[in-house]
Amino acid sequence: MSLLARLSRQKPPPPSSLCLTLLARHLSSASTSSKLHDHYAFRPPPSLSPQEPDNPNPTTRKKQKPLYRPPSTLDRTGKKPTHSDLPFDFRYSYTESSQSVRPIGLREPKYSPFGPDRLDRSWTGVCAPAVDPKVKSLDGTDDPNLEEKRKLMREKIQGDPLTNAERKILVAQCQRNKTKRQINLGRDGLTHNMLNDIHNHWKHAEAVRIKCLGVPTVDMKNVCSQLEDKTFGKIIHRHCGSLVLYRGRNYNPKKRPVIPLMMWRPHEPIYPRLIKTTIDGLSIDETKEMRKRGLAVPALTKLAKNGYYASLVPMVRDAFLTNELVRIDCQGLEKSDYKKIGCKLRDLVPCILVTFEKEQIVVWRGKDYKPPEDGELFADREFFDDPEGSSMGLSEDSCSSDDNSSPGFYSGDDE
Fold first, then answer.
1. pLDDT class for 49, splitting at 50, 70, 90?
2. Average pLDDT over the chain, rounded to an integer
3. H or E segment at 228?
4. Which of 74, 90, 200, 309 lies 20 to 30 A from 190 at CA?
5. Percent of the chain scoring above 70 in pLDDT
6. 322 phi and psi angles, rounded to 5 deg
7. What residue stretch is flagged as signal peptide (predicted)?
């Protein structure tokens, strides 16, 4: 009785010791089975015997699965290159690049910004010509039939002109209190991918509002002409940098033109220098003296960042009536921005660039400067179409940027 009482008082073994006990019994049974196999030729069933590998060579490993690779738009195996019937050369920017200025070289090897083998046009480093797909020069050869083809396509899409009442309704629908749809045209101007954005907006509305700010607004006539030429639309209203672009009566969104998208921005080619060591017609000492005097001249105006600069050209022309040197303060602007502005002034005024030092644009009217006549003074003042049909001549200085944005220039006396 004392032994039984002593055993009953003992605590039960822990679970871990129980597992060890079962494992020991299993091993003893395994050893027993092995004895049975040795002495009595007993063979266990296949379910109990360990499976031998099929591969006799244990050193070789299984082939690992390839790593997951997400689908890419660059994989075009078995697909034909995209074809577009648009009758113009594809460029990154249509307002900030000119076919008349030929680059002197390329910064990087030529590669297509549309992706490899995605377009049936060859990229020359500057554009993708619409005529010769195998052109090797930097500029595509001009085809006289392209202009006629472009004109016929635009007339077919536009149809009959709008009446004054129809135009007034479309312009009212594009105001800020009616819609938030807007395309912003910035320092790069009218880019190629922006054409696709315009057609996407035309799916939902007959007209789209475009807001223009920055460097391209120096030459708003070029912006308007390029918009109408590349989209086959028509600008039915303009107030300073705000445009309303109409798609046309016969426009069909299901038959929109094929516009291949640029997947990255191409490298800009190398162009000739804007500022030469010596100005044409002057000696080295005269050039140095003119640059010193130009930086000391009172500033004609101070440009704001991402402003509206359409009044800059007439201001410089008016200043040349009394001064031979004009300085424009560009502090705060990107270096590439005020260089582009200086290049536009050189071609539009016209004038001679003196220096870009200290974030200033200094231009000279030249020795053989002839002041414009009275009729030519107002030739650069643009006329804006009123929605009701009456044209009103507006001075660019009186055009404050609608839509609650600051004007693009300030008076130099405010400094």
1. low
2. 79
3. helix 220-231
4. 74
5. 70
6. -120, -25
7. none
Between 131 and 161, name the one with better pLDDT: 161
**What pLDDT sits at residue 161?**
92
Residues in the chain: 415
Tell me the domains of the chain and their CATH numbers.
Answer: 79-271 (3.30.110.60), 273-364 (3.30.110.60)
SS3 assignment for 21-80: HHHHHHHHHHHHHHHHHHHHCCCCCCCCCCCCCCCCCCCCCCCCCCCCCCCCCCCCCCCC
Q: What is the mean pLDDT of residues 286-313?
A: 92
- Residues 6 or more apart whose Cβ sits within 8 Å of residue 224: 235, 238, 243
Please give the pLDDT value at position 75: 65
Cβ contacts of residue 246 below 8 Å, gap of 6+? Answer: 162, 167, 170, 206, 207, 233, 234, 235, 236
Tens of pLDDT along 84-112? 889 889 999 999 988 778 888 888 888 88
More confident residue, 12 or 117: 117
CA distance 291 to 350: 18
Q: Which residue type sits at 68?
A: Y
The residues, ordered by sequence, that sit 6+ positions from 136 with a Cβ below 8 Å of its Cβ are 124
Q: Give the DSSP per-residue string, 155-206.
A: HHHH-SPPPHHHHHHHHHHTSTTT----EEE-TT-SBHHHHHHHHHHTTT-S
Two structure tokens written together for 45: 């069933």
Residue 47's pLDDT band, with cuts at 50, 70 and 90, is low
Q: What tokens does 392 get?
A: 């009103």
Cis bond upstream, residue 103 (ω within 30) = no
Structural contact between residues 345 and 351, judged by C-beta atoms closer than 8 angstroms? yes
> Could you tell me how far CA 130 lies from the centroid of its own chain?
21
Left (φ > 0), alpha (ψ -120 to 50) or beta: where does 26 sit? alpha
Of all helices (H) and strands (E), which one includes residue 340? helix 335-348
